[in-house]
Write a structure and sequence with these properties.
The complex is a heterodimer of chains A (247) and B (328). Chain A has 247 residues and is an alpha/beta fold. Chain A has helices at 43-50, 73-78, 96-104, 111-125, 140-153, 170-185, 197-203, 221-226, 228-235, and strands at residues 3-14, 17-28, 32-36, 58-63, 66-67, 81-83, 158-162, 189-193, 206-211, 214-219. Chain B has a single domain, classed as ABC transporter involved in vitamin B12 uptake, BtuC, CATH 1.10.3470. Classes of the chains: A alpha/beta (247), B mainly alpha (328).
Chain lengths: 247, 328
């Protein structure tokens, strides 16, 4: 398997706060990797650094061999790395279809082509019935679906999902897990930031644990849940899946 | 779909015929003057709306481009005898080029800070034209030499001719807006207006798109500046770079409905007719009362219908007739 994403020595400071310190990990092609850790561990900041929203102080990010550090977010997206946001950012005044078409225009600027690509992505995430709904009227889970469809429409090879399951009820989490598995089955490489341990255990092949901006562990899910350092820093009394939805 | 398309074309054709026939039917020079004002400010609003409406980059400095257009063509005409038709295009190009450094500076800021910066740019340009007396006549300005009937120099004896010129400008502005709205560019503009970060995340090069639309917007606004100077035969920095132009451009769009094709036109018709009617009804009774009433109407629209009259009309239409949400 080829390496899709290679992150080396990534660091970022905000004033006196070391948000991310010397974080390295590698994501293989078509693998799903989860980034976990307590609030403020630097997960979202890592996403910002990887996708060009923040510039790291040092370190490198290689996406399929291309250095991404220093590129603008739209260039990163054009290279085939798309992301969703922790707080969904729909284009509220636009319909679901128009939202997703905006993503599709990256690869083809013809209206008809973008529309059919967008419809494909909308069907894929299961929003077909909401195509003409203004994005601001969607429920939380549908907004997350929209974020994913919009990212998919840019035809990425790597998809970064930032807490797509936060605020969902258990039934919705099952739907979201199924969707992530479906994305992975379609050949995408996925990096997912998540708090819902049940979901992580279901989708991730590999887990990277951050705490205070540093990587404290990484490995297969089974090893991670038994790692004493991870239990101390993050999981607490959580022992084995399938347990409660929230660790 | 088919019938609504046919209806649209029919409506457009009837509208065009009415607009073309209007100066023949209504010959009062006072009325034609009001029509010209309405068309002119509709056009300026349309130019502003491309950036301020679709991409929600709220500029209050479009007088900068209005003034640059006015001065470019006037300087070319008065000093070098070049036709304002050529000067108009030259003014557009000057405005377009000026929008590059201005945009480079102002787009570093977002929201209200951006707006304030744009106000400053128009003011700075006004000061420059006040100071440099040798090439732009300083504060007293200059009159355009009256050549009588000289269509090639954009001078006409009939007021209706000016009407047709500005009607043509408006048609061009609306056509450009329509083409942009229906293309990828329109989606990108609205996306940037909604959430710039999210737009960037799906591959939208927001700084480039903003720069491009600002150039188009500046170009069109400059054409209005040339036309206006030719129409009133006079130019000075206070008129050419008047803050009122910037305000009016934004206001007609906001009242009519920002980010919609016809919003600026509807907004201008409403505001200009209201102000003209108030002027004739109330102007002679208590001084300044028409401005007070005008402002109250404006406040009412902004308070109750922040999406503008077009938004109001679509709401009513969908609630009563279609029971379906609007397409963005």
């Amino acid at each position: 398997m080829a390496e899709a994403l290679v992150i080396k020595g990534l660091s970022k400071r905000f004033g006196g706060l070391r948000a991310v310190q010397d974080v390295s990990f590698t994501v293989q092609e078509n693998e799903t990797v989860a980034l976990i850790g307590p609030n403020g561990a630097g997960k979202t900041t890592s996403f910002h650094l990887i996708t060009g929203f923040h510039r790291p102080d040092s370190g490198s990010v290689l996406a399929f061999g291309h250095e991404v550090v220093g590129l603008k977010p739209h260039d990163v997206c054009a290279l085939g790395m798309a992301r969703t946001f922790q707080v969904a950012k729909p284009f509220g005044a636009m319909t679901v279809l128009a939202n997703v078409m905006t993503g599709a225009f990256l690869r083809d600027r013809h209206i008809a082509a973008a529309r059919s690509k967008a419809r494909e992505a909308i069907e894929f995430v299961g929003l077909g019935a909401r195509e003409q709904t203004p994005a601001k009227d969607l429920t939380t889970i549908d907004q997350r679906r929209l974020e994913m469809a919009r990212a998919l429409a840019t035809q990425p090879r790597i998809l970064l999902l930032d807490e797509v399951m936060a605020g969902l009820n258990p039934a919705e989490i099952d739907q979201a897990v199924a969707l992530v598995k479906k994305l992975s089955a379609s050949g995408l490489t996925i990096v997912i930031v998540e708090h819902v341990m049940r979901a992580i255990m279901a989708v991730a092949r590999h887990i990277v644990v951050l705490d205070h901006g540093q990587k404290i562990a990484e490995g297969a899910p089974k090893e991670i849940v038994e790692n004493p350092e991870v239990i101390r820093a993050y999981l607490g009394s959580y022992v084995h899946p399938p347990g409660d939805a929230h660790a | 779909m088919q019938t609504s398309g046919t209806l649209k074309w029919l409506g457009l054709a009837i509208g065009a015929v009415v607009m073309l026939a209007l100066p023949q039917l209504v010959t009062s020079s006072f009325a034609i003057d009001i029509f010209i004002r309405i068309l002119l400010f509709s056009f300026i609003g349309v130019a502003w709306n491309l950036m301020g409406g679709y991409a929600k980059q709220l500029s209050l400095g479009h007088a900068a481009y209005f003034g640059l257009g006015a001065y470019t063509s006037t300087i070319m005409q008065v000093n070098y005898g070049i036709s304002p038709w050529i000067g108009m295009i030259a003014g557009g190009v000057v405005a377009m080029l000026a929008s590059l450094p201005i945009g480079w500076l102002c787009f570093r800021l977002r929201g209200p800070y951006f707006t304030i910066a744009t106000i400053a740019t128009a003011q700075v340009l006004m000061l420059i034209f006040l100071k440099f007396r040798d090439f732009a006549w300083g504060a007293e300005g200059t009159t355009i030499p009256n050549l009588g009937s000289a269509p090639l120099m954009m001078q006409f004896e009939e007021k209706s001719s000016y009407y047709y010129v500005v009607l043509g400008l408006l048609a061009v502005g609306l056509w450009i807006t329509h083409r942009i709205e229906k293309s990828w560019m329109g989606y990108y503009l609205v996306a940037i207006g909604e959430d710039e970060d999210a737009a960037e995340a799906v591959g939208v090069n927001a700084p480039k798109i903003k720069r491009d639309i600002y150039m188009i917007s500046a170009f069109l606004t400059a054409l209005a500046g040339t036309f206006y100077t030719q129409y009133i035969y006079f130019i000075d920095p206070a008129t050419a770079f008047s803050f009122n132009v910037s305000i009016e451009a934004a206001l007609v769009s906001i009242v009519g409905g920002i980010g919609t094709l016809w919003g600026p036109v509807i907004g201008t018709v409403l505001l200009e007719t209201t102000s003209a009617l108030l002027q004739s009804w109330l102007g002679s009774s208590v001084g300044g009362i028409q401005l007070t009433v005008y402002s109250l109407i404006l406040m009412a629209v902004i308070l109750w219908r922040p999406t503008g009259l077009i938004g109001f009309a679509t709401d009513v239409y969908h609630r009563t007739l279609r029971r379906k949400p609007a397409r963005a």
